[in-house]
From TrEMBL:
PROSITE patterns: MTTASE_N, MTTASE_RADICAL, RADICAL_SAM, TRAM. The gene is rimO. It comes from Chloracidobacterium validum. This is Ribosomal protein uS12 methylthiotransferase RimO. The keyword Hydrolase does not apply. The lineage of its organism: Bacteria, Pseudomonadati, Acidobacteriota, Terriglobia, Terriglobales. InterPro entries: Elp3/MiaA/NifB-like_rSAM (IPR006638), Methylthiotransferase (IPR005839), Methylthiotransferase_CS (IPR020612), Methylthiotransferase_N (IPR013848), Methylthiotransferase_N_sf (IPR038135), NA-bd_OB-fold (IPR012340), Ribosomal_uS12_MeSTrfase_RimO (IPR005840), rSAM (IPR007197).
Length: 464
């Protein structure tokens, strides 16, 4: 299994692995040893699509080297370009969309089988206008009973709480690929998290296209807040965080549960996309710069010590230098903990695709680089406050950079996207910590994105 793209896609890959194993197939992490290769693709932006195609062609070459080997392509790229892929990639034996994961065992048993999406009527809810709802077959949701083989480290796991999205962002193709919002039941999620805790998972990361809309389709008024409070009672879990938040869905109820439950990470990943009001309207995003500034102030007031991560799109059609200057000024004034910046990707089938005044690629890339240089200075300055402090760190084991040091994360650092704590020393008489242990680290140095420190104590009981 080659899994590309976001954590939501990774969960789909883990489900497919679980389904294959349940059907009696052995899993190998070496493509050259496999009789069947599955590539789970991403089709969100141009760079991701290109990576997906290159990976498919690489795996197709491996298939050609061994007669009888099969190649299956799954995921978002299939949802967007199923017919084109069938025509252009005859070496692929089968294609699986994001709502057809459970068909994998049937394909493994019957190589010549093809899959046709089954039509299911969309529910008439708010968000995406009916004329733009393009996925009438999207209804799949995995549950606590769905087999799954996790590929993340043992101490943390992603849990998908909902699928699809009802927001009408002009640049986004997710509704075409994933359909409208569909939330899992609280009991299903709770049962899955309890099982993960029993397996040794210490950090739960809730994911969805917009986790803050969780439960709206089920009639829940404060769905995510209710879910988080229930999950915080699960024994054995140390940290819980959620990705990703939509600005107009940040309720006081959600902020209050973040502030009051010790297991909930005081961390909000809230993609804002831009700060210039004109750009927000063009993107079909809510609010204005003033709205966002008031929202951020409210978050920080109600959840002391919260870390804020956001992402921005630069080079959106019609973005002027003045619009970009507004974004720079906004970032400087708000001093976010973590920022990601992306150059606009012109995606067919989205409303933005037909907009005039495209920004030249060189200009857009220069703006992205300038924004990230600004954020690097902000991050370096913000991390200095940790110098000489003793902080709780989730221990993760050897560093990705060197076996000579360890690494871990603060509650305000999500795996794979934020900085790390690099651990250089520990008391000689202390048993070596294990991944998932909560250790106390004295910070001895700070860098642009990472912290450096030494362990002074292990907070995790030996029996845990």
């Amino acid at each position: 299994m080659v899994s590309l793209g976001c954590p939501k896609n990774l969960v789909d890959s883990e489900v497919m692995l679980g389904l294959a194993a349940q059907a009696g197939y052995a899993i190998t992490d070496t493509a050259g040893d496999a009789d069947v290769i599955v590539v789970n693709t991403c089709g969100f932006i141009e760079a991701a699509k290109q990576e997906s195609i290159e990976t498919i062609l690489e795996m197709a070459a491996l298939k050609a080297a061994q007669p009888g080997r099969r190649l299956i392509v799954a995921g978002c790229l299939v949802e967007r370009y199923r017919d084109e892929l069938r025509t252009e990639l005859p070496e692929v034996d089968a294609f699986i969309g994001t709502n057809e994961l459970e068909q994998l065992p049937r394909l493994l048993r019957s190589p010549g089988t093809t899959i046709a999406p089954h039509p299911v009527a969309l529910r008439p809810r708010g968000g995406i206008p009916a004329r733009e709802r393009t996925r009438p077959d999207a209804d799949y949701l995995y549950s606590e009973t769905t087999p799954r083989i996790r590929t993340t480290p043992r101490h943390y796991a992603y849990v998908k709480i909902a699928e699809g999205c009802d927001h009408p962002c002009a640049f986004c193709s997710i509704p075409q690929m994933r359909g409208n919002l569909r939330s899992r039941r609280v009991g299903s999620i709770l049962a899955e998290v309890e099982r993960l805790a029993a397996e040794g998972v210490r950090e739960i990361i809730l994911i969805g296209q917009d986790t803050t809309s969780y439960g709206e389709d089920l009639g829940l008024k404060h769905g995510l807040a209710t879910l988080l409070r229930a999950l915080a009672q699960v024994q054995g879990i140390t940290w819980i965080r959620f990705l990703y938040a939509y600005p107009t869905r940040i309720s006081d109820a959600l902020l209050d549960v973040l502030a009051s439950e010790p297991k909930l990470c005081r961390y909000i990943d809230m993609p804002l996309q831009h700060a210039a009001t004109r750009m927000l309207h063009a993107m079909r995003r809510p609010g204005s710069r003033e709205f966002m500034e008031k929202l951020i102030a409210r978050i920080r007031e109600r959840v002391p010590g919260v870390a804020l991560r956001t992402t921005f799109i630069v080079g959106y059609p019609g973005e002027t230098q003045a619009d970009f200057d507004v974004l720079l000024d906004f970032c400087a004034s708000q001093s976010f903990d973590w920022v990601g910046a992306f150059v606009y990707s012109d995606e067919e089938g989205t409303p933005a695709f037909d907009l005039p005044d495209k920004v030249p690629a060189r200009t857009a890339e220069a703006r992205r680089a300038k924004l990230m240089r600004l954020q690097a200075r902000i991050s370096k300055q913000r991390l200095k406050r940790f110098k000489r402090q003793v902080v709780d760190v989730l221990f993760e084991g050897p560093s990705e950079d060197s076996d000579l040091i360890w690494q871990g994360r603060l509650a305000t650092q999500a795996p794979g996207i934020d900085g790390r704590v690099l651990i250089t020393d520990a008391p000689a008489d202390m048993p070596s910590p294990q991944p998932g242990d909560l250790v106390q680290v004295e910070i001895t140095a700070t860098h642009t994105y990472d912290l450096v420190g030494r362990i002074v104590a292990n907070r995790t009981p030996p029996s845990a």
